[in-house]
Amino acid sequence: AAERRFKLYGQIANGIAIGFLAVLLFSIASKSASAFSRHMLVLTIDQPDLSARGDLAVTDLNLAVRNELVEAFPEIADDRTARIDLFGLTTRLAVLPLTKSAAENPVLFEAPIEARFAVSDDLDLYLKNDFRTHRTVEVGRAGRLSGTRSGTFRVTDAGPDGFETFQSFLEDQSEPRTDILISLQGVWFELGAISGAALELQHLAGALPPLGELGGTQIDAVLLPSVGDNRKVSNRQIAYTMLLKQRGMIEKRFNQTLFTNSDSTYPELAGTAAALIGSLFTMLITALFAIPVGIFAAVYLEEFAKKSLITNIIEVNINNLAAVPSIIFGLLGAAVFLNTLGLPRSVPLVGGLVLGLLVLPTIIIASRAALQSVPPSVRDAALGLGASHSQAVFHHVLPLAAPGILTGAIIAMARALGETAPLLLIGLVAFISEVPRAPNDEATVLPVLIYKWFSGAERAWEPMTAAVIIILLTILVAMNLVAVLLRRRFER
Fold first, then answer.
1. How far apart are alpha carbons 201 and 150 in whole angstroms?
2. CA quadruple 376, 381, 382, 386: dihedral positive or negative?
3. Which residues are CB-contacts of 390 (< 8 A; sequence separation ≥ 6)?
4. Is the pLDDT score of 169 beyond 90?
5. d(CA 287, CA 110)
6. Which three-class secondary structure state does DSSP give residue 41?
7. Residue 367: which pLDDT band, with cuts at 50, 70 and 90?
8. For the whole model, what pTM was predicted?
9. 274 neighbors 444 (Cβ within 8 angstroms)
10. Which helix (H) or strand (E) is 480 found in, with range?
11. What is the distance between the alpha carbons of residues 278 and 430, in angstroms, rounded to a whole number?
């Protein structure tokens, strides 16, 4: 009975651990799902002049984009407020990929081109989340459309109902009051009020139909999930978006810029390329420094060093260093590599050296444990057959201990990949807009990028941060899987 209870306790403990892990992964995955796709605005740019460089090229191309948007909605050409809302569908720097393509291959832009520009982060989130909750209901049939002195419009009901059914529907709604958009002959209005048998409307988007009799055209209402004061996307921008979607000018695509772009102040343009390459360079320096030094230190302490007070002190300090908080190694790196040696800040070279010092005790301890696991009879047999001490260690003991050493080294590298605190102290938190090409170029790493994006004020940074966490977890799982496979492959 005691054994059954103990077994049950173990199963409960495993279940609790797996449950928390599942909740964590589901939470991160659900938040990151929207970051792997994005909405693009599709426009045909008529022979853009991209001969300029830098900010001038960005300005010229933005002007071309705005001209195309105004051509899509010519009725707002003289309405400054409406044009501001229209131009807010995308950001100024959304044209950067096109300017880079023009610089690399100008021949592609000698004729009109179909270009895609990332919509603003607020609109992208609205299309992914709130747009799905739109409710469309029938209002009635349009009788007559007329204008008012205040600039609004009034449409009457063509039937005897007088929009009473629609009014009753609105009164029966248990949800809080929301904004309502009205669709009439492909034109979008905002519902102001229902006055008797007439709707008071404010024009939003689309070419106005002629005033007068409308011949019983169907009127539809779209109930938005919130009021305009509680969101950053205006009702007019929602109307523009619905018209553009109907015309096929907004499409949803895989967010490849998440992996190809560097960091940006705009969430819709930000990517992890600089952080990925920076992490690669940092891990490369860490591996080149820590793994050979750790393995040879372990071999010396375990196989060659004589037991003495000095070796005992070294062993105690190695074990203690493995438990030192990582931020202490950051302080050490800042003091030695930056202040004393004068190495540059914010470069993977310094980051790799700091992380190498951090994981060096772990590699030494794991390597010594692997060497201790080799049976003494292997050493005795090699020495008995005439091998020297070095030959016995490097030809027989070390190959048998290699799986354990590799496993310890990879797990130590996985720990280094997830460290943030020591890298913050040596400046790897810098904003990096270009992908580093060498270990001595300014860079950042994935954990620091997570910290930076998580502190962003805009709502779009939340799914972006979760996406980077998923990328980092994928790399860590892959590294641990490689450790397991190598151990099984080389075990003898």
1. 11
2. positive
3. none
4. no
5. 48
6. strand
7. very high
8. 0.84
9. yes
10. helix 461-490
11. 12
